[in-house]
């Protein structure tokens, strides 16, 4: 009897009457299972994979080609990469590789500016160390001269700590300016464009007061707890606390301060990039960095610490031969003027060589962390991809690409995983 759909008796439900039935269901059918006679029972199943191995997933035309994903598995297309990074949320390797590519893509501007900043920061320290080594050599040769021994402490303090303090002041100014200029160069390099030193400075010059304001506010925020610790130790001294209590309190205070300093510096690490690329003010940049780091604090902290370690190792390896040679020359030169000058030059060259590589590397990592956080929290990679497609169509990177980083000019994309800035005003206040 028919099932009402024109199927013949014995045909599986849903199988059309004019369609051959499955393997072995009809004698002489071309669909009869291979290796079995018409009408005979089905043969043994084909041998499976060896014991302990998963069966190989095959499509209707045999196994997939070597190196291809299994049938039915969707393979995501590679992300666009017009410049130093792929336009998608970045991994650790992407950030470190992008920082290196920034230096290699525009070495004249990046290394030239970094060398100037590094030399300005290294010269005061080099002079101080050369004077200190010369004083030490004179002292070793004239231990019997009481007058020279009496003048040694004052000269050592001025030569060592005076040069270091002056170097810190110069470094603060130089590195702050360098960070702003390199961040602007990085903003263009993401699209594959280059920027001259003059153009980068012209675009960054108006942000210099904001950058120094960020440095001052951040420094005050990091050092503020020191006043509390001073008051705490003064109270312990007034109460006549014993040495064990002072040591325990000191260790707890030190651990607390380290944790606080890491927390504050990580939360505010992206403020310079926001100030330069988004043209925000001091308070707005700090708030912007705080919000961007939300939801990714530990990852951001880990990458920043790893960057500091890598930069320290690279800087030490590059500067060590020059520093060693200068130190030996200063100790063996007998305190002569020529030996002190040669010592200062060698130490300054070593510090400059090390810092001219580590300064742009650290600035690039901070800038790429900023870009990564915007991609993860605002889907900013979609904005970058749209702009990159248009630039590829035009065949060049226009200067208007710099405006894409400013949310007041380019609205953010849809938020990913609950953006921390969701609901916050995007326009400058």
Structural notes for this entry:
The protein has a domain at 107-405. It contains 11 helices and no strands. Helix 3 crosses helix 4. It has helices spanning 92-105, 107-141, 146-189, 197-204, 208-238, 243-267, 271-277, 282-293, 297-332, 337-378, 380-394. The model is unreliable at 1-8, 11-17, 19-40, 152-156 and 417-429 (pLDDT under 50). It is mainly alpha-helical and 429 residues long. The protein is 63% helix and 0% strand.
Provide a brief overview of the structure:
Residues 1-84, 405-429 are annotated as: Disordered. With 429 residues, the chain is mostly helical.
Topology:
Blueprint: H1 92-105, H2 107-141, H3 146-189, H4 197-204, H5 208-238, H6 243-267, H7 271-277, H8 282-293, H9 297-332, H10 337-378, H11 380-394
Helix pairs in contact: 1-10, 2-3, 2-9, 2-10, 3-4, 3-5, 3-7, 3-10, 5-6, 5-8, 6-9, 7-8, 9-10
Keywords: Membrane, Transmembrane, Transmembrane helix
InterPro entries: DUF7847 (IPR057169)
Organism: Streptosporangium amethystogenes subsp. fukuiense
